[in-house]
Design brief:
heterodimer, A: about 220 residues, mainly alpha, three-stranded antiparallel β-sheet, two-stranded antiparallel sheet, 6 helices, B: mainly alpha
Chain lengths: ~220, ~550
């Protein structure tokens, strides 16, 4: 009995030492080495691909953000500032609940199923809003023109992109609100449309932040 | 180009890349596990461990090594989370509650990476990088070690010795996982994945004001999370988060990493048993199921059946614009047919049938191609069952790779395939029968049932993905899923190693005209059929209540 207890203790000891050594290799040396190389070679990307406009940091190329008006007194949810191109809905984003000293955003999806009543209502409301917001005097949006990603929440809630179709659809409204020519705005959209990587990977897309930065430059000319 | 065509081209590119890597990596791994030489850094590690890497172990000793190392790992990771609040470098994040810390420790040690916590608000640098990411390496290496031990059982005769666990563990990490991870991590950073040790910091926004961001060693963790088929995300959104998976190329690259080792191990297997073609037969089985599932998933997701998707025009809920439906479907199938569980789109918002396909993928036992190591040993157990069934049909004693599949072997194999379904179905039934667990469901009806079924399927099969509508951070789910993950990982390993020991003791029997040729396409067909029939018989009633009821309504 004593012997088998001793064997077990020896085995546990070997397991612990193996874990500690491998922790040193995989949990300290490896991440530090990769961080060193990353910071040296790809400093900008390793730190979040930040974008600047007018000398100020305005976010990350990779992280979606909202383009809303400031909250008015009595309002509970902010309304979109229609001067700017609008991103996808992000109903799955959460606020941190554990470490309340921070105001972190929790990435995430809604996780609602296709037959979920709440999701059906969200999609219907979003579609109605897209149609209403984007119809101008000379341009009527049909519900069938609205692309799917414009009325659904992304997986991360931080999707920085919209489809070229959705950007195109917003061009008329954006032109009107900014007193610009529609042609100018459509050219802006075309210039900021990225095709599939190498022609076949992923989907065509428009980065909303880059587009809005370019729009701002255009309006300030 | 239509999104469907782009999806097909992405699938073909993936197959081409995997085919290119198959031979060199498979041969390299065979050399690593067959070598008698030790690298200098390995000698140094063995010295620190106090183990002699040249001592051969029989199956009980090998198993004791696996269990001792894993038990210590669970305890260490549990304690690390419990003291997080007092550790420097934890960004002031609090210590994790006991039930969640147990769940997370069980999850990462069992190669599952089920997460009932939100990465960005719960785990600081020390726990993420020094605890969770380390288990991503070593739990993967343990899986590969057990698979190699089983292959040695086939390859060796009249011995019973299966190799040295410490040597297999250390070599898997040092010679296979680490080199690929370093290269992969740098590729990911070059494409935009973050890699820093910044604290939580404010970043200016376009409309004014700021957003708070986490920093972190994300790229270095992301790469091993996929390569080791672990799947635990740095952020809550996992591989959908742009800092983990910035563009469509990294997306394909991450799918490649998921599938790389599991597929290539069939080459290693073929080399070690002395017949490359036996490896091809197993590879053929895995690839057939994987490609078949991708095609089914495209049919379901491009079809976009479901009230909300029909209003929207397509099933884009829970999917990223940059990936689209085509690539998201490939990722979803690859992550659930392996034991990965990373997601670039949220399975709960897939169509009813699409969600069912992800579940069915896990229910196959994650063997096509499966987790690193676990996929290969799971598939070899299935191959023995297939040989056994064929033997019954012609009334001959079944044999596989020159080894008799007798009562003893088939008992171990049967126990292996019964463990996981028993865990999944019993825990799901218990959760449905009790009052409180049902409060965790976001959706009601068939989809609510699917959330619970998915959770236990994912846990017991060591996948780790979720129908994340389920609020799994309750004492009930943390505890029961934690148990399902540990039992679902280590009980099958017991049977696999016992089986390996039993095979290694046998005297090989020469092939005769009556031997079933297991390297032929006919056997691949038989194996695919066996897998589908066994899984179908086991899970059909449960699937009918969940995804089938939703998808067909």
């Amino acid at each position: 009995m004593n012997n088998s207890l001793g064997n077990t203790a020896r085995l546990i000891g070997a397991g612990l030492r193996a874990l500690l050594v491998l922790t040193l290799v995989c949990g300290v040396i490896y991440p530090l080495a990769v961080t060193g190389i990353a910071q040296g070679l790809f400093n900008d990307k390793a730190n979040g691909s930040e974008m600047t406009a007018g000398g100020k940091v305005v976010g990350s190329e990779l992280i979606g953000q909202t383009y809303n008006r400031p909250l008015k007194p009595g309002e509970e949810t902010p309304s979109p500032d229609l001067k700017w191109f609008q991103p996808r809905p992000s109903n799955g984003l959460g606020a941190n609940s554990v470490n309340t000293q921070y105001k972190l955003i929790l990435s995430g999806a809604t996780n609602r199923s296709g037959d979920n009543e709440e999701l059906i209502q969200w999609v219907k409301d979003a579609k109605a809003a897209v149609v209403k917001d984007n119809s101008t005097a000379g341009y009527k949006v049909k519900p069938s023109d609205v692309p799917a990603e414009a009325v659904t929440s992304s997986a991360s809630g931080l999707d920085p992109h919209i489809s070229p179709e959705y950007a195109e659809l917003q061009a008329h409204r954006v032109a009107e609100k900014n007193h610009l020519d529609v042609k100018q705005v459509r050219k802006l959209v075309a210039d900021h449309t990225d095709g599939r990587i190498l022609g076949f990977m992923g989907e065509p897309r428009v980065n909303v932040l880059q587009l809005n930065i370019a729009l701002k430059e255009l309006t300030e000319k | 180009m239509s999104p469907f065509l782009a999806g097909v081209l992405q699938l073909l590119a993936l197959i081409a890349a995997l085919a290119l890597a198959y031979r060199p990596l498979g041969d390299h791994m065979a050399k690593v596990y067959g070598s008698t030489k030790h690298l200098r850094v390995e000698k140094w590690i063995y010295k620190a461990v106090g183990a002699n890497p040249s001592v051969e172990m029989r199956w009980p000793a090998y198993l004791r090594g696996v269990l001792a190392f894993s038990a210590v790992s669970v305890l260490f990771l549990y304690l690390l989370q419990r003291v997080q609040g007092s550790l420097p470098g934890s960004l002031g994040f609090a210590s994790i509650d006991p039930d969640q810390a147990f769940n997370t420790a069980a999850s990462f040690v069992s190669n599952t990476n089920w997460q009932s916590y939100y990465g960005e608000q719960a785990m600081g640098h020390v726990v993420q990088t020094g605890g969770l990411a380390v288990q991503n390496f070593v739990s993967a290496a343990v899986g590969m070690a057990v698979a190699v031990a089983l292959v040695r059982g086939f390859a060796r005769s009249r011995t019973g010795e299966l190799g040295n666990f410490w040597a297999d563990l250390v070599r898997g990490v040092v010679r296979i996982l680490l080199p690929i991870s370093v290269i992969g991590a740098i590729i990911l950073v070059a494409c935009g994945a973050i890699q820093n040790f910044a604290g939580i910091h404010e970043v200016g926004q376009f409309m004014g004001g700021t957003q708070q961001w986490n920093g972190g060693a994300v790229a270095s963790q992301e790469v091993i999370k996929e390569l080791g088929t672990n799947g635990g995300g740095y952020f809550n959104a996992n591989s959908a988060h742009p800092f983990e998976n910035p563009n469509a190329f990294t997306n394909l690259f991450e799918i490649f990493l998921i599938l790389l080792i599991p597929f290539s191990l069939t080459r290693t297997f073929g080399r070690m048993v002395g017949s490359i073609r036996q490896g091809y037969a197993i590879l053929g089985t895995m690839a057939t199921i994987w490609v078949g599932f991708v095609l089914l998933m495209w049919a379901a997701e491009f079809g976009g059946h479901g009230p909300a998707f029909e209003v929207a025009g397509a099933a884009m809920e829970g999917k990223e614009t940059r990936f689209g439906i085509g690539a998201s479907s490939i990722f979803a199938v690859s992550t659930t047919l392996t034991s990965t569980g990373a997601v670039d789109s949220f399975h709960s918002s897939f169509t009813g049938l699409g969600g069912g396909i992800t579940m069915l993928g896990m229910m196959l036992g994650e063997i096509a191609p499966g987790g690193v190591g676990s996929g290969l040993y799971g598939m070899l157990v299935m191959a023995m069952i297939a040989v056994f069934i064929a033997g019954l049909m012609v009334g001959r004693t079944p044999e596989y790779l020159g080894k008799k599949i007798s009562t003893r072997e088939i008992k171990f194999a049967a126990c292996y395939i019964l463990v996981t379904p028993a865990l999944v179905l019993c825990f799901t039934a218990a959760a449905m029968a009790l009052d409180t667990p049902a409060n965790s469901m976001t959706n009601t009806g068939a989809h609510g049932f699917s959330e619970v079924l998915y959770a236990y399927t994912s846990g017991a099969n060591n996948n780790g993905s979720a129908f994340a509508g389920l609020n799994a951070d309750t004492q009930w789910f943390n505890t029961t899923i934690g148990l399902a993950m540990l039992l679902g990982r280590f009980l099958p390993m017991v049977f696999v190693l016992a089986l390996a020991g039993s095979l290694a003791e046998q005297t090989p029997i020469p092939a005769t005209a009556g031997t079933l040729r297991t390297e032929k396409p006919l056997f691949t067909g038989l194996l695919v059929g066996t897998i589908l029939i066994i899984t179908g018989l086991t899970y059909f009633p449960a699937l009918a209540l969940g995804p089938l009821a939703e998808g067909l309504s």
